[in-house]
């Protein structure tokens, strides 16, 4: 493919060589680049592939073209093309889209953003579209999912090379609609540039979360990039009940509609009532809708917040002309791995959830009260190298809403468990008399909770959800909360 074709939507300058040159591959990872490739130089916080030694090694491999955002030094006598762009991350998104022949244009693309609720809403909408007979793919926290297969991702919103690769595979396999979780960080670092979304959803935004040295520098930066997600769509749906929705709307530049509880909402939910199926021991929630869809719905999930997740999915589905019957059937039979996921039910129950900040932990624990447990036992850790506010918030939620907590390790990354624990304790002690212990090893904490469970207990394990690994001191080790729960239950004779 010619360089000029790959950069057809990018402003660039030819420093040396020719943009008519052909390349046989593209790469942004110097370890994987091959002869004949175009190489995209990235200036990272820890690693910069513009460095002279890296360029020399790549040229020796036979890399033909370098796309850069700063000056590079080519080895003497090397015949390569050098292209200069303003921002290689931004250019890279368009470059990879062109390399994979713009797969997003072959599907209906839906972006969902929010501090909480992205994954649940993604899977609700995906289930509705599938129930209506569409072939659907989803990309987000639970991975890239299509054709019945789950491809794990390192980030909620994968980088542009990975995103475009999976979009191409989806398009080739006949996927008609892709529901895509787009984080503010994903937007800020150009992971979805080059994709025009047909629909965008804004769920909510929380102060204190995703703000810190390794994430957004301020709340203003955070809300700005959330708004850019929906501004990348042809039509946006905004949650009008969110406390910051007026601030958010000052940044919205695209056509939009509202969903919420107010009379001004285009899609409105009301008469929200909690339900409980005594025979199935299953809480749920019923609600009615008005505006562009007028009907009654029932969710087989606890938690009032799930009404707004469902309403967002209903709004997009309505614009896609999905029958209400498909919406109702899908929403009443939901199961989302790692989200309020009851993985065992017997004399006591065990739930696994991805809640990894204060707001999500608070909502999750409130929702679990609807199962009417004798005791609510919370096993949780908090992420290292992330906002300290998350730790305070998770500790406070557990201290106030759980009957007993076991604080353990999560993704500690490069911080010690002891340092993270001290921050969690700040939140725990906002409750008057928090009952808790600390067990550093996550497996030991889960085993302790199960082996000491009382009849009627509901044990919830927070922070990793669907994930199959745990990161400590920069090392990722295989671990699944769900699978380890099953292992312990087999060890004590409760599962065969």
Topology, element by element:
Blueprint: H1 3-6, E1 13-16, E2 25-27, E3 37-40, H2 52-61, E4 65-68, E5 81-84, H3 88-99, E6 108-113, H4 118-131, E7 136-140, E8 143-146, E9 149-151, H5 160-172, E10 177-181, H6 184-188, E11 197-202, H7 219-231, E12 233-239, H8 245-249, E13 256-260, E14 267-277, E15 282-291, E16 295-299, H9 305-319, H10 324-331, E17 341-345, E18 349-353, H11 358-368, E19 376-380, H12 388-401, E20 404-407, H13 417-428, E21 436-438, H14 442-451, E22 458-462, E23 469-472, E24 475-478, H15 481-491
Parallel strand pairs: 2-3, 3-4, 4-5, 6-10, 6-11, 7-10, 11-12, 12-13, 13-14, 18-22, 19-20, 19-22, 20-21
Antiparallel strand pairs: 1-5, 7-8, 8-9, 14-15, 15-16, 17-18, 23-24
By DSSP, the count of extended strands is: 24
Give average pLDDT, whole number.
94
Strand-pairing-aware structural class: alpha/beta
- In CATH, the topology of the largest domain is named UDP-N-acetylmuramoyl-L-alanine:D-glutamate ligase
What spatial form do the alpha-carbon principal axes imply? Answer: globular
User: Which CATH class of the largest domain is shown?
Assistant: Alpha Beta
Largest beta sheet: what is the strand line-up? 9-8-7-10-6-11-12-13-14-15-16
Task: Classify the oligomer.
Answer: single chain
> Please, how many domains?
3
Q: What's the CATH architecture of the largest domain?
A: 3-Layer(aba) Sandwich
Rg for CA atoms: 24 Å
């Amino acid at each position: 493919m010619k360089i000029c074709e790959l950069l057809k939507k990018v402003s660039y300058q030819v420093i040396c060589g020719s943009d008519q040159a052909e390349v046989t591959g593209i790469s942004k990872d110097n370890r994987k680049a091959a002869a004949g490739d175009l190489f995209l130089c990235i200036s990272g916080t820890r690693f910069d592939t513009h460095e002279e030694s890296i360029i020399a090694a790549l040229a020796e491999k036979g890399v033909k073209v370098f796309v850069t955002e700063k000056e590079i030094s080519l080895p003497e006598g090397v015949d390569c093309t050098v292209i200069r762009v303003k921002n290689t991350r931004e250019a890279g998104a368009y470059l990879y889209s062109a390399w994979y022949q713009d797969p997003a244009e072959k599907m209906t693309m839906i972006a969902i953003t929010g501090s909480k609720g992205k994954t649940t809403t993604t899977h609700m909408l995906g289930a509705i579209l599938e129930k209506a007979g569409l072939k659907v793919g989803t990309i987000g926290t639970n991975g890239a999912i299509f054709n019945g297969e789950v491809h794990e991702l390192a980030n909620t919103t994968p980088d542009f090379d990975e995103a475009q690769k999976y979009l191409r595979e989806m398009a080739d396999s006949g996927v008609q609609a892709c529901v895509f979780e787009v984080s503010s960080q994903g937007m800020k670092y150009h992971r979805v540039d080059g994709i025009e979304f047909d629909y965008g959803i804004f769920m909510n935004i929380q102060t204190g979360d995703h703000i810190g040295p390794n994430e957004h520098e301020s709340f203003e930066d955070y809300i700005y990039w959330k708004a850019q997600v929906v501004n990348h769509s042809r039509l946006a749906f905004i949650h009008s009940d969110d406390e910051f929705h007026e601030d958010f709307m000052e940044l919205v530049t695209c056509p939009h509609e509202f969903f919420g509880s107010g009379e001004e909402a285009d899609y409105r939910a009301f008469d929200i009532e909690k339900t409980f199926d005594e025979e199935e021991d299953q809480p749920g929630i019923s609600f009615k809708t008005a505006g562009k869809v007028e009907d009654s719905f029932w969710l087989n999930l606890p938690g009032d917040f799930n009404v707004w997740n469902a309403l967002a999915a209903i709004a997009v589905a309505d614009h896609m002309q999905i029958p209400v019957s498909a919406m109702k059937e899908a929403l009443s039979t939901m199961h989302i791995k790692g989200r309020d996921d009851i993985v065992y039910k017997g004399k006591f129950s065990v739930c696994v959830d991805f809640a990894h900040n204060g707001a999500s932990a608070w909502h999750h624990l409130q929702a679990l009260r609807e199962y009417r447990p004798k005791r609510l036992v919370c096993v949780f850790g908090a992420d290292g190298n992330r906002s300290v506010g998350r730790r305070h918030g998770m500790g406070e939620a557990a201290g106030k809403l759980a009957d007993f907590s076991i604080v353990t390790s999560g993704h500690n990354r490069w911080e010690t468990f002891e340092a993270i624990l001290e921050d969690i304790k700040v939140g725990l002690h906002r409750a008057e008399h928090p009952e808790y212990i600390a067990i550093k090893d996550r497996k030991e904490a889960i085993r302790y909770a199960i082996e000491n469970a009382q009849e009627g207990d509901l044990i919830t394990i927070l922070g990793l959800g669907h994930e199959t690994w745990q990161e400590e001191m920069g090392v990722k080790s295989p671990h699944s909360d769900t699978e380890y729960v099953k292992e312990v239950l087999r060890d004590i004779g409760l599962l065969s």
